[in-house]
């Protein structure tokens, strides 16, 4: 088992023929992902040789689904075209759209997120500005390195791409059921809470590691949800303990106002919900290791 992405997932890549799309299509294929097609209206009907694998290119997501049965799209298109690409995926009712693109205008994200809701939330959106998700040994949709961990029983949900990789590496001897990078923008599709519930429902996930960061109130809301709905042990880490007050940091969502949104406030909210919170990624990995025994 895994969440959102399994060995049976059939993946298409919107923007596959661009340089980033091609680079990561190559890496996804090498890690065992079943990539069944790319989407580029200007190259529809052609095939691309990716290290010996012939991948067909379709003119639209709908056409790709009809031809291949695809149920996941990974989106590598420039920010200006991302909204149109995601709306196309939603219109085609693909079950999962993974939006890797960084720098998508927040208004565009709010627009396609609301559009998905109007269409009945038939398409789960992960991202934007995220590394995607991986179920080790099964499938990899995005840019997460596949060789830093193995299959195991830890579920990981993270706002930060690099901290996703670090946590996977630090706990690589134990392994992960799935790791989901949800992205750090102010507006995102899949949230901590969505992933927490999915891991709660997954029989092959024993403990959950949740990585947040300063700014906003997503971690506080997750803490409240954990208190009410999650019975599996949760270990947390909040990036930004050493961030200077009053300064906007890194990710677009990492804006601290007053005491709200600070790492300490988030740590306290999570601990009040029974979550063990590490002060560093390594300490967080150690807490997870102790819990899994």
From TrEMBL:
Catalysed reactions, semicolon-separated: succinate + ATP + CoA = succinyl-CoA + ADP + phosphate; GTP + succinate + CoA = succinyl-CoA + GDP + phosphate
Enzyme Commission number: 6.2.1.5
Active site positions, chain numbering: 251
Residue numbers binding CoA: 17-20, 43, 100-102
Domain CoA-binding: 4-104
Name assigned to this protein: Succinate--CoA ligase [ADP-forming] subunit alpha
GN (gene name): sucD
Annotated positions binding substrate: 165
Pathway as given in its UniProt record: Carbohydrate metabolism; tricarboxylic acid cycle; succinate from succinyl-CoA (ligase route): step 1/1
Gene Ontology MF term list: nucleotide binding; succinate-CoA ligase (ADP-forming) activity; succinate-CoA ligase (GDP-forming) activity
InterPro entries found in the cross-reference section: Cit_synth/succinyl-CoA_lig_AS, Citrt_syn/SCS-alpha_CS, CoA-bd, CoA_lig_alpha, NAD(P)-bd_dom_sf, SUCC_ACL_C, Succinyl-CoA_synth-like
Pfam family, one: Ligase_CoA
Sorted UniProt keywords: Ligase, Nucleotide-binding, Tricarboxylic acid cycle
GO biological process: tricarboxylic acid cycle
Enzyme class: ligase
One CC-aspect GO term: cytosol
Purpose: Succinyl-CoA synthetase functions in the citric acid cycle (TCA), coupling the hydrolysis of succinyl-CoA to the synthesis of either ATP or GTP and thus represents the only step of substrate-level phosphorylation in the TCA. The alpha subunit of the enzyme binds the substrates coenzyme A and phosphate, while succinate binding and nucleotide specificity is provided by the beta subunit.
Top-rank lineage group of the source organism: Bacteria
Quaternary structure note: Heterotetramer of two alpha and two beta subunits.
Sequence similarity: Belongs to the succinate/malate CoA ligase alpha subunit family.
């Amino acid at each position: 088992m895994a969440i959102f992405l399994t060995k049976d997932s059939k993946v298409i890549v919107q923007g596959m023929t661009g340089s980033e799309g091609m680079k990561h299509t190559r890496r996804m294929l090498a890690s065992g992902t079943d990539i069944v097609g790319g989407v580029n209206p200007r190259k529809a009907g052609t095939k691309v040789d990716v290290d010996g694998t012939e991948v067909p290119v379709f003119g639209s997501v709908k056409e790709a689904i009809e031809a291949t049965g695809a149920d996941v799209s990974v989106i590598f298109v420039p920010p200006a075209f991302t909204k149109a690409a995601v709306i196309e995926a939603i219109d085609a009712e693909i079950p999962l759209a993974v939006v890797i693109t960084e720098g998508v205008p927040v208004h565009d994200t709010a627009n396609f997120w609301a559009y998905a809701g109007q269409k009945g939330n038939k398409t789960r959106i992960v991202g934007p500005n995220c590394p995607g998700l991986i179920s080790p040994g099964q499938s990899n949709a995005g840019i997460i390195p596949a060789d830093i961990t193995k299959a195991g029983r830890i579920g990981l949900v993270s706002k930060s791409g690099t901290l996703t990789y670090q946590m996977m590496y630090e706990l690589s001897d134990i392994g992960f059921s799935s790791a989901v990078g949800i992205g750090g923008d102010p507006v995102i599709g899949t949230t901590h809470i969505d992933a927490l519930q999915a891991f709660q429902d997954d029989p092959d996930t024993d403990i959950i590691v949740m990585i947040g960061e300063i700014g906003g109130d997503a971690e506080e809301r997750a803490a409240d949800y954990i208190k009410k709905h999650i019975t599996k042990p949760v270990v947390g880490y909040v990036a930004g303990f050493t961030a200077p007050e009053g300064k906007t940091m890194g990710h677009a969502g990492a804006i601290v106002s007053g005491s709200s949104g600070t790492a300490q406030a988030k740590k306290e909210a999570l601990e009040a919900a029974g979550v063990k919170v590490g002060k560093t990624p390594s300490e967080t990995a150690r807490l997870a290791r102790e819990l899994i025994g």
